[in-house]
Design goal:
The mean pLDDT is 87. This protein has a single domain (35-269), classed as Orthogonal Bundle (MetI-like fold). The two termini are 30 Å apart. The chain is mainly α. α9 runs antiparallel to α11. Helices cover 78% and strands 0% of the residues. It has eleven helices and no strands.
């Protein structure tokens, strides 16, 4: 007779205690040192841009990723092939390369296409000509992150939707529910429990990858830190503060997402 596998007892999070001690020590150093306090006050000005880029890009990437996932699961072969083509191509391009391409190739191409399509309106004086500089580097960076992460998020949605038992979908069909009603009432509420953990990991990863927008001069945490370090030659202090801020953001988000995941698991068991 097979011995049942016992559930391991929850361990005390010693890693979290150690991280909290280090964070407290760093906070005391910042509070007691005029130099560190000045660096922190300067670099912290980029937190708002970092959060804005992350939240907006992730929301857009999630919406686009869900659309791609539904295309990949559709009954049309053409839609499935288009979705697979998009996912494989985008996932094969590094985020940094995609960022440069969107900023310096994609944006000019978009402006040229827009001007060509709206040429009659421009001739009539109804709208003005769109210039490349009208598309800010901030939004070019957001679109690059949106496109890059949508390919990964679409696979998360696809796997979560496919995890729902087929029998429940057939039962919903027998009850006369439409395709949209089946997705909204049956599939998505169950799939979200599978989707949430990897989706949360992607959100935390985007917080870190948002630092890549600094290569375009967007004034996020990394860019402001880079400018301050170059002007003051305080590289150790500046990049220590930059790393500290990112750690506070990412570890805090990870703990919040883990608590939400455990709460959803308890509600499911009840």
């Amino acid at each position: 007779m097979a011995t049942p596998i016992s559930t391991p007892k929850p361990e005390f999070p010693w890693w979290l205690a150690a991280a909290a001690v280090l964070a407290l020590a760093a906070a005391l150093s910042i509070a007691s040192s005029d130099l560190y306090a000045q660096v922190f006050a300067t670099v912290a000005k980029g937190i708002g841009i970092t959060i804005f880029v992350t939240v907006v890009a992730f929301a857009l990437a999630s919406a686009l990723g869900l659309g791609i996932a539904l295309m990949a699961l559709s009954g049309s072969q053409w839609l499935r092939q288009i979705a697979r083509f998009y996912v494989e191509i985008i996932r094969g391009v590094p985020i940094l390369v995609l960022l440069f391409w969107i900023a310096f190739a994609g944006a000019p191409a978009f402006v040229a296409a827009w001007n060509a399509l709206t040429a009659p309106l421009q001739s009539a004086g109804l709208i003005g000509e769109l210039l490349v500089r009208d598309v800010s580097l901030l939004w070019r960076a957001i679109m690059a992150l949106t496109i890059g992460y949508s390919a990964f998020i679409s696979e998360v949605f696809r796997a979560g939707i496919q995890s729902v038992e087929r029998g429940q979908i057939e039962a919903a069909k027998a009850l006369g529910l439409s395709r949209a009603q089946r997705f909204r009432l049956i599939v998505f509420p169950q799939a979200i429990r599978m989707i949430l953990p990897p989706l949360g990991n992607d959100f935390v990863a985007m917080v870190k990858d948002s630092s890549l927008v600094s290569v375009l001069g967007v004034a996020d945490i990394t860019q402001i830190g880079k400018i301050y370090a170059a002007g003051s030659f305080r590289f150790f202090e500046t990049y220590s503060i930059v790393a500290y801020i990112y750690l506070i953001l990412t570890v805090g988000l990870s703990l919040a997402l883990r608590a939400l995941e455990q709460r959803l698991r308890r509600q499911h068991q009840e």
